[in-house]
Design a protein that fits this description.
about 425 residues, alpha/beta, Adenylosuccinate Synthetase, Chain A, domain 1, Adenylosuccinate Synthetase, subunit A, domain 2, Adenylosuccinate Synthetase, Chain A, domain 3, 10-stranded mixed β-sheet, 4-stranded mixed β-sheet, 20 strands, globular, binds inosinic acid, binds magnesium ion
Length: about 425
């Protein structure tokens, strides 16, 4: 990804999240100077495996495991400070020094306990299947211009006044939604008082930091969370998250102009998964869903929920390539398909008797599409130790060729296992 021409790159999920972005960011961070999260919050669960150690990062960029890398949590992220510091303490306990190399935008909005109460209550009337981390309500407060930002902690007295109003409003909403939960101003004020010193110690104008890094041609990796089909605008609305997960969000959410970005890597699984509600056109049969889940360990890193599994959906990935402007593709978890005798690939949909090559904008129509499958032969051999394309069985190479052609995007990376070294760079 990084070369003379590409010094500022975005990594995005090109399906419904959980594509293995954490691993790709970890691998690419080896060559990066900065890793920047730009949207989402503690709903993300980026898994990095180093040797026998597994790290799950929700709020901190996956680059933190590289001692040379500066990590930035940008303005577009919603900050769950308790999770952030819990994660930071966990890293310190495991011997990872983060001193002086983690910065949080002072423009980023805070996710507070009342957002989680609202998230839970709204699931009762409209079941999106959220992660319950308060993400939607925190972004709703941001666009409603009543959010509380990291920088507001610099003036706790004024922020305390804001809290009175915010908590009042949240409690009215909770009552209206039939919830018996209530938020307390005192508890929130105490929480902010506790968090302020630690958060302000890492707070910065991170847009300026990233801008300067880009200007100096330092290598900057912008780490997306979730996936294109969970994007607030481009995803399967309303079954989406509340931020722009696509590459355009990287510019807005990190505070640099779009001209600074010179490459966009889309990460896809060799099959498809989805967690939470909403359509999954290429869903596998119950037996194969179960088999993919078992082989792929398809359980949420944050919630532990079972992910629904299906086959590679080229319509989805082509769409993701378009809305993200993907310049290259990383295909992960190829090894999960090692034992399948044959592998269906969804090449297009059928809708109302016609072939459909695009993702319909209304979820109601997407729910009615029928996948058109092409079946490719399996390879019946382990790919886990392959380190070059030539090491792969011919049928696995043919599968990747088909994926590349259908997605109309060149494959640059193939991941064949959870470990750092289990990667093929094409
Ligand atoms: P929220 O982001 O918690 O509001 O959840 C909205 C939808 O996005 C739900 O379907 C979640 O399961 C899904 N979602 C949110 N974050 C992730 C993620 O990191 N991976 C996969 N799905 C996610
Ligand atoms: Mg995840």
């Amino acid at each position: 990804m990084f070369d003379d021409r590409t010094t500022c790159a975005v990594v995005v999920g090109a399906q419904w999240g959980d594509e293995g972005k954490g691993k790709l960011v970890d691998v690419l961070a080896e060559r990066a100077d900065f890793v920047v999260r730009y949207q989402g919050g503690a709903n993300a669960g980026h898994t990095v495996v180093i040797g026998d150690a597994q790290f799950i990062l929700r709020q901190i960029p996956s680059g933190i495991l590289h001692p040379r890398v500066t990590c930035v949590v940008g303005n577009g992220v919603v900050i769950d400070a308790e999770t952030l510091f819990g994660e930071l303490d966990g890293l310190h306990e495991r011997g990872i020094d983060t001193e002086g190399r983690l910065f949080v935008s002072d423009r980023a909005h805070l996710v507070l306990p009342y957002h989680k109460l609202l998230d839970a209550a709204s699931e009762k009337s409209q079941a999106i299947g959220t992660t319950g981390r308060g993400i939607g309500p925190a972004y709703a407060d941001k666009t409603g211009r009543r959010g509380i930002r990291v920088g507001d902690l610099r003036n706790l007295a004024a922020t305390r006044l804001l809290l009175d109003d915010r908590i009042d409003r949240a409690n009215s909403l909770l009552a209206m939604m039939g919830s018996s939960e209530r938020a307390s101003v005192e508890e929130h004020a105490a929480l902010l008082g506790r968090l302020a010193p630690r958060l302000l110690a890492v707070a910065a104008d991170t847009g300026l930091l990233v801008y300067r890094a880009v200007k100096a041609r330092r290598r900057v990796l912008l780490e997306g969370a979730q996936g294109a089909l969970l994007d607030l605008d481009h995803g399967t609305y309303p079954y989406v998250t509340s931020s722009n997960t696509t590459a355009g969000g990287a510019s807005v959410g990190s505070g640099i102009g779009p001209t600074a970005i010179d490459g966009v890597l889309g990460v896809v699984k060799a099959y498809t998964t989805r967690v939470g509600n909403g359509p999954l056109p290429s869903a596998a049969s119950p037996e194969e869903d179960e088999r993919l889940r078992r082989l792929g360990g398809e359980f949420g890193a944050v919630t532990g929920r079972a992910r629904r599994c299906g086959w590679f959906d080229a319509t989805v990935v082509r769409y993701a390539a378009r809305v993200n402007g993907l310049t290259e593709l990383a295909v992960t978890k190829l090894d999960v398909l090692d034992t399948f005798e044959s592998i269906p690939v969804c090449v297009a949909y059928e809708l109302e008797g016609e072939r459909c090559e695009e993702v319909p904008s209304e979820v109601e129509r997407l729910e009615r599409v029928r996948p058109i499958y092409e079946t490719l032969p399996g390879w019946g051999a382990s790919t886990a130790s392959a380190r070059t394309l030539a090491d792969l069985p011919a049928a696995a190479r043919a599968y990747l060729d088909r994926v590349e052609r259908l997605a109309d995007t060149p494959i640059r990376y193939v991941s064949v296992g959870t470990r750092r070294d289990q990667i093929i760079e094409v």
